[in-house]
């Protein structure tokens, strides 16, 4: 029945197919109110009308004022030059980009950023997908309770949550005490100021995005489809692998995009858990702006992070969409 | 020994009993319908046979083997769902081949059997299409082919035609009947549509509130309903209160012979509107309150001493009474069903 809805309402099709775009907007947050897709399946009149444009004007204005203008300003800033004695000079050169792209110091930071983001994304997919599936199969009172627990990290301020992890992950923290008590390790594991620690803390806060995204695609799954596969002789694991998984792939993908984008641009968690030395792109930008006061270089790093993010996300999106073409239609 | 035995099958949920001590036997090759309003327990019964729900109490024996001892994926049953439940990420041919693949059928046999199954449902040209791009009727055919290709020892159909429009539903009814004749698979059809059940089945099982009301051939259930529920569920009927005296029932000032065993005392008589005719002698006298022309037939409402009767007469040129005319109505004793008063409530 959902299928029929999407056929009659072009607006609905668009919102279904491009869950990915929605995900990116969730990241931006400041883009504000975009015109909501017409939910009743009414055929839009073919006549050109200026009313929709007028109605979306406030949204466009907010988006332009608070996203496009600062972005353009950052892009322009990144072309300027900087010297310790002369400050920011109003020149237009690609020097900052060339410096960043040729210096192995920056290579290491970018590599670390995307390594962490990739690990966080994979861990979130591996944890969040089964979590969403189990949640869907839960009974009435437990389901909402467990969902609240899953969403819990989002309700806590980033600073207190991250400092909480710092307490847990420290050499004498609860995690190491537990590991030592269980005899799993002979000496405390280093979590603080390591990529492992950053990944753990990021997975904790980002896994709800994956759960919600997979949950949404599970809602579109016909519950009888699993029974149909069972009746045809498939074992429960085969049902999961061959029937359920391919159909929730769009959800896993859009969840991965949100998680990857947020992990790659995360600031507070790497700053606190990773510390001053374990830099990622976001903390590097911060340092360039506020410590070195080299604003143009900071802007260039920020721009490169943005571009790299877009390239990676769009590339992966293409790849997965091609592989699971039918599910995305 | 019957092919399928449902013995005292019961499903209780926390606050209510969905299926209450249902016992039924089905012969091999039979097409039997579970018919009833929503919530009568018909789908629950089907799901217990398929293994998607475990019965609280009861036994299911198929071909001499205890079905409940086997998991749903080991029962070898074909199931067609109301929503079709096709795998949207697979082509039609892949959908149909899935069950064979699970059975480890080799590639060549699989391709041949899939082609045969698609030919049976008239979709041989559509093997590489995706289900979402097909009409409801075509999707239903794919679902049918997918269930039949594994040569199930029993085919369960859960409201298979309810998502189709009226014209398509009729086509699929004929199609289903034809396929059943060709392959001779035992089928259990769950439906709330009495005309669908009557058109397709060898026997209908009329259910209400988790209990079987009547098991009979469609004609028998229609002509001689066991109780008021069956009479009303299978089309319109007139229910007249009366008193049973051994071999006859008295309704107002008329007496009608009773065949079968109905205990003496208060009873009721059920007779279909189209079985009632206008007679000269020996019937119930009354007055025509209204008559309505419906194209192929006339609908009358006749007020009698036993209550208001609905009468349907064919528009075949014969002379019919007018409104407010005094008339006498009657019917053949074999066209009526007599039941104790408590069954008529």
From TrEMBL, chain A:
It holds the Pfam family BPD_transp_1. It is a multi-pass membrane protein. InterPro entries: MetI-like (IPR000515), MetI-like_sf (IPR035906). Gene3D superfamilies: MetI-like. Keywords: Cell membrane, Membrane, Transmembrane, Transmembrane helix, Transport. Residues 1-42 are annotated as: Disordered. Residues 110-316 form the ABC transmembrane type-1 domain. It is found in: Cell membrane. Its main location: membrane. The chain crosses the membrane at residues 53-77, 109-128, 140-159, 197-216, 252-273, 293-316. PROSITE patterns: ABC_TM1. Signal peptide: none annotated. Belongs to the binding-protein-dependent transport system permease family. CysTW subfamily. This is Spermidine/putrescine transport system permease protein.
UniProtKB/TrEMBL annotation, chain B:
Keywords: ATP-binding, Nucleotide-binding, Transport. Signal peptide: none annotated. InterPro entries: AAA+_ATPase, ABC_SmlMolc_Importer, ABC_transporter-like_ATP-bd, ABC_transporter-like_CS, Mo/tungstate-bd_C_term_dom, P-loop_NTPase, Transp-assoc_OB_typ2. This is Spermidine/putrescine transport system ATP-binding protein. Residues 4-234 form the ABC transporter domain. It comes from the Bacteria. Pfam families: ABC_tran (PF00005), TOBE_2 (PF08402). GO terms for molecular function: ATP binding.
């Amino acid at each position: 029945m959902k299928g029929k809805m999407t056929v009659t309402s072009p607006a609905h099709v668009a919102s279904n197919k491009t869950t990915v775009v929605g995900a990116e907007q969730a990241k931006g947050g400041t883009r504000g109110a975009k015109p909501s897709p017409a939910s009743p399946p009414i055929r839009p009149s073919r006549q050109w009308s200026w009313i929709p444009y007028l109605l979306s004007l406030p949204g466009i204005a907010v988006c332009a004022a608070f996203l496009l203008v600062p972005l353009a300003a950052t892009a322009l800033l990144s072309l300027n030059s900087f010297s310790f004695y002369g400050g920011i000079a109003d020149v237009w050169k690609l020097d900052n980009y060339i410096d960043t792209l040729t210096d192995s110091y920056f290579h290491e930071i970018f590599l670390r950023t995307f390594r962490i983001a990739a690990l966080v994304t994979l861990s979130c997919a591996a944890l969040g997908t089964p979590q969403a599936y189990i949640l869907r199969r839960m009974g009435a009172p437990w389901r909402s309770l467990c969902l609240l627990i899953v969403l819990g990290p989002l309700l806590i301020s980033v600073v207190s949550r991250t400092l909480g992890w710092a307490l847990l992950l420290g050499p004498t923290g609860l995690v190491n005490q537990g590991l030592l008590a269980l005899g799993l390790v002979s000496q405390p594991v280093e979590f603080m100021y390591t990529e492992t620690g950053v990944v753990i803390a990021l997975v904790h806060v980002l896994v709800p995005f994956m759960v919600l995204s997979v949950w949404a695609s599970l809602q579109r799954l016909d519950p009888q489809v699993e029974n149909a596969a069972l009746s045809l002789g498939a074992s429960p694991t085969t049902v999961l692998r061959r029937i359920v998984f391919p159909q929730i792939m769009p959800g896993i993908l859009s969840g991965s995009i949100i998680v990857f984008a947020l992990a790659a641009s995360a600031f507070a968690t790497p700053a606190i858990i990773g510390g001053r030395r374990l830099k990622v792109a976001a903390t590097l930008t911060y340092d360039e702006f506020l410590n070195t006061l080299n604003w143009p270089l900071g802007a260039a790093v920020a721009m490169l992070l943005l571009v790299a993010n877009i390239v990676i996300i769009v590339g992966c999106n293409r790849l997965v969409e091609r592989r699971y073409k039918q599910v995305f239609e | 020994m019957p092919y399928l035995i449902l013995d005292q099958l019961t499903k209780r949920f926390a606050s209510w009993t969905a299926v209450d001590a249902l016992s039924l036997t089905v012969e091999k090759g039979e097409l039997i319908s579970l018919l009833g309003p929503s919530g009568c327990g018909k789908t629950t019964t089907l799901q217990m046979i398929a293994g998607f729900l475990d019965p609280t109490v009861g036994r299911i024996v198929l071909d001499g083997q205890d079905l409940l001892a086997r998991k749903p994926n080991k029962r070898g049953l074909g199931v067609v769902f109301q929503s079709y439940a096709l795998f949207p990420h697979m082509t039609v041919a892949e959908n149909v081949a899935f069950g064979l693949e699970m059975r480890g059928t080799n590639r060549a046999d699989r391709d041949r059997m899939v082609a045969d199954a698609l030919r049976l449902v008239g979709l041989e040209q559509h093997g590489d299409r995706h289900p979402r791009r097909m009409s409801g009727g075509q999707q239903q055919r794919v679902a049918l082919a997918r269930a039949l290709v594994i040569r199930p020892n029993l085919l369960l159909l859960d409201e298979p035609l309810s998502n189709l429009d009226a014209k398509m539903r009729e086509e699929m009814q004929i199609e289903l009947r034809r396929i059943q004749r060709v392959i001779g698979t035992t089928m259990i059809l769950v439906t709330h549509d009495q005309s669908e059940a009557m058109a397709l089945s060898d026997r209908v099982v009329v259910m209400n509130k988790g209990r079987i009301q009547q098991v009979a051939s469609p004609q028998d259930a229609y002509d001689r309903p066991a109780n008021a529920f069956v009479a009303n569920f299978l089309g319109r009927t007139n229910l007249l209160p009366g008193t049973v005296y051994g071999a006859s029932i008295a309704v107002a000032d008329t007496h009608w012979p009773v065949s079968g065993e109905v205990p003496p005392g208060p009873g009721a008589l059920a007779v279909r509107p189209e079985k009632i005719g206008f007679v000269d002698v020996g019937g119930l006298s009354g007055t025509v309150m209204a008559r309505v022309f419906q194209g192929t037939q006339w609908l009358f409402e006749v007020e009698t001493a036993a209550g208001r009767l609905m009468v349907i007469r064919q528009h075949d040129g014969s002379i019919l009474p007018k409104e407010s005319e005094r008339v006498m109505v009657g019917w053949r004793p074999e066209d009526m069903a007599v039941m104790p008063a408590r069954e008529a409530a």
